[in-house]
Structure to design on (587 residues):
């Protein structure tokens, strides 16, 4: 299957939405070619507004448009959307619960060569903490396209975390995205990997590496980090002795923290968190970065083995 | 159209309510509420098409209080228009009140945008004006900007965008009272010349005495005739206007009067 990035699917979904609905307005901060928000210009140029390199203003403008009955999609790179404009999102969009969909691309280390200044590993943490903000991260383009169409119908603020990198698809065309429900990629035994975004594919690849040893992990795709499908996570945690989370984000405040928070309150269990540790990224190819920062399939498999054989030895 | 005499009576009531609210709460911002009171009174009574029937909706002219700390002014004006019970004004800044310290659009009909973090309201007003253009809706968007607020970089991002998108349905009133919490705007971080800066950003600028109803009225009328660019009403005002011991005192930016000072202020406003 050909490789495709989630941002491509975002552009596709936007084109469809703009053609179908009169309330869609799209904003970007001079990155519309990269975020793919600019795709809407092909079908309905009058609803696309370039706000220039001024993300803070863009978010408050989005709030004003939403307060006027529009469903607004505002895009930039994750770093600048969630970081630069955090307080505008918090006060102009979050506090009045306005209908703005912040669709951020180029999240995480997979940005690659641009380096740490552009590799946002904090956005899930920043967005999760805003009251009422819903936070999403699709695993592939097939899921992303459906997810974007779904959130267009959800009232209130949403944040979607997407990637620059074109990757293989985790799902096939028959996949049906279901809002609020964690997606079981595969059911295995003993080991549970809870992953999100590009790490879902890495988890699937890790599973391939572990197959010969007879280790078949269950893989859960968390496309919705907030509100979290706690029910499925708790049920799955109860069925597995080894639990890992995997994310292309800091282990502080992201998926791992959200899962830990859920399990602590409901079913305390030891958790191995795979993700960017308390450090910044650097320039390099995405695969090199995933390797160096230990979030690729090989490292996931290694962590699974450590937990698996460690557990079995002590038994 | 209300006469100058009628407007004056409304503005006296509004100023008295500002003082009463801030005194009752023992918290809030009287100085910058009083400096803008004449212009916002004029706006709500003689310019905007807001009334009891349309206040809950958005199919009308709208106003964004970008300097959100002047919330006592906005609430007092909405009360004077009959949208908020006068008794409710005394819940301002108290627990369980709709009248939050800075305006919350979800809790008060007639508050068109939640503001308080400076620089963001003017951007939201830009978004509203863009929406009206898109919908070919002739209603106008007004915003009140503080002079100290113009130190926020976002104000200039918004100013650039408003001119770029030729938002002639947007009229921003600059309350140029010259003072901010820490002192004179010229001492803290001089933003002047603000008229020249807005002109350079592509705005039509009208300079007025912000306490003169005739000048205020002419400025709003002229703004409606300007095509292809947004308008800034550059209004020279006096912080604390109407209460002599508060006038031109930055110390009254965010301080509540005690009971004695309140009585003195109300007496003065009543013209006694």
């Amino acid at each position: 299957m050909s490789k495709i990035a989630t941002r491509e699917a975002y552009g596709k979904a936007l084109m469809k939405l703009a053609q179908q609905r009169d309330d869609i307005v799209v904003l970007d901060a001079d990155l519309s070619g990269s975020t793919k928000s600019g795709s809407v210009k092909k079908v309905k140029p009058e609803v696309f507004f370039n706000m220039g390199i001024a993300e803070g203003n863009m978010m408050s403008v989005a709030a004003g448009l939403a307060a006027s009955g529009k469903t607004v999609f505002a895009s930039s790179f994750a770093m600048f959307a969630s970081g630069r404009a955090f307080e505008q999102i918090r006060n102009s969009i979050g506090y009045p619960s306005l209908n703005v969909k912040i669709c951020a691309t180029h999240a995480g280390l997979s940005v690659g060569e641009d380096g740490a200044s552009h590799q946002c590993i904090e956005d899930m943490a920043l967005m999760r903490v805003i009251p009422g903000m819903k936070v999403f991260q699709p695993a592939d383009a097939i899921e992303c396209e459906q997810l974007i169409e779904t959130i267009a119908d959800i009232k209130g603020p949403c944040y979607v975390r997407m990637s620059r990198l074109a990757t293989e698809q985790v799902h096939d065309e028959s996949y049906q995205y279901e809002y609020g429900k964690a997606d079981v990629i595969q059911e295995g035994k003993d080991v549970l990997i809870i992953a999100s975004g590009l790490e879902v594919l890495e988890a699937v690849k890790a599973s391939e590496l572990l197959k010969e040893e007879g280790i078949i992990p269950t893989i859960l795709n968390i496309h919705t980090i907030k509100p979290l499908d706690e029910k499925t996570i708790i049920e799955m945690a109860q069925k597995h002795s080894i639990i890992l989370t995997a994310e292309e984000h800091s282990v502080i405040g992201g998926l791992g923290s959200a899962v830990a928070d859920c399990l602590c309150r409901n079913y305390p269990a030891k958790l191995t968190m795979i993700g960017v540790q308390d450090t910044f990224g650097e320039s390099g190819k995405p695969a090199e970065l995933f390797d160096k920062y230990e979030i690729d399939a090989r490292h996931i498999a290694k962590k699974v083995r450590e937990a698996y054989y460690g557990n079995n030895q002590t038994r | 159209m209300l006469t100058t005499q009628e407007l004056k009576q409304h503005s006296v009531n509004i100023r008295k309510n500002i003082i009463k609210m801030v005194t009752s709460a023992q918290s809030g911002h009287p100085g910058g509420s009083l400096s803008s009171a004449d212009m916002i009174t004029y706006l709500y009574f003689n310019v905007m098409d807001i009334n009891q029937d349309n206040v809950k909706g958005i199919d009308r002219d709208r106003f964004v209080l970008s300097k959100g700390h002047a919330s006592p002014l906005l609430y007092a004006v909405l009360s004077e228009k009959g949208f908020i019970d006068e008794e409710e004004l005394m819940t301002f800044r108290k627990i369980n009140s709709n009248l939050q310290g800075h305006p919350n659009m979800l809790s008060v009909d007639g508050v068109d945008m939640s503001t308080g973090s400076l620089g963001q309201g003017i951007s939201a007003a830009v978004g509203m004006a863009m929406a009206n253009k898109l919908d070919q809706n002739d209603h106008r968007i007004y915003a009140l900007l503080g002079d100290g607020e113009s130190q926020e970089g976002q104000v200039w991002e918004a100013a650039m965008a408003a001119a770029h998108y030729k938002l002639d349905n947007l009229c921003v009133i600059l309350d140029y009272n010259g003072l901010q919490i820490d002192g004179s705007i010229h001492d803290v971080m001089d933003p002047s010349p603000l008229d020249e800066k807005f002109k350079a950003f592509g705005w039509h600028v009208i300079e007025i005495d912000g306490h003169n109803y005739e000048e205020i009225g002419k400025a709003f009328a002229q703004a409606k005739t300007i095509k292809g660019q947004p308008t800034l009403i550059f209004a020279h005002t006096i912080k604390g206007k109407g209460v002599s011991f508060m006038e031109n005192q930055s110390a009254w930016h965010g301080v509540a009067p005690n009971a004695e000072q309140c009585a003195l202020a109300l007496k003065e406003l009543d013209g006694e």
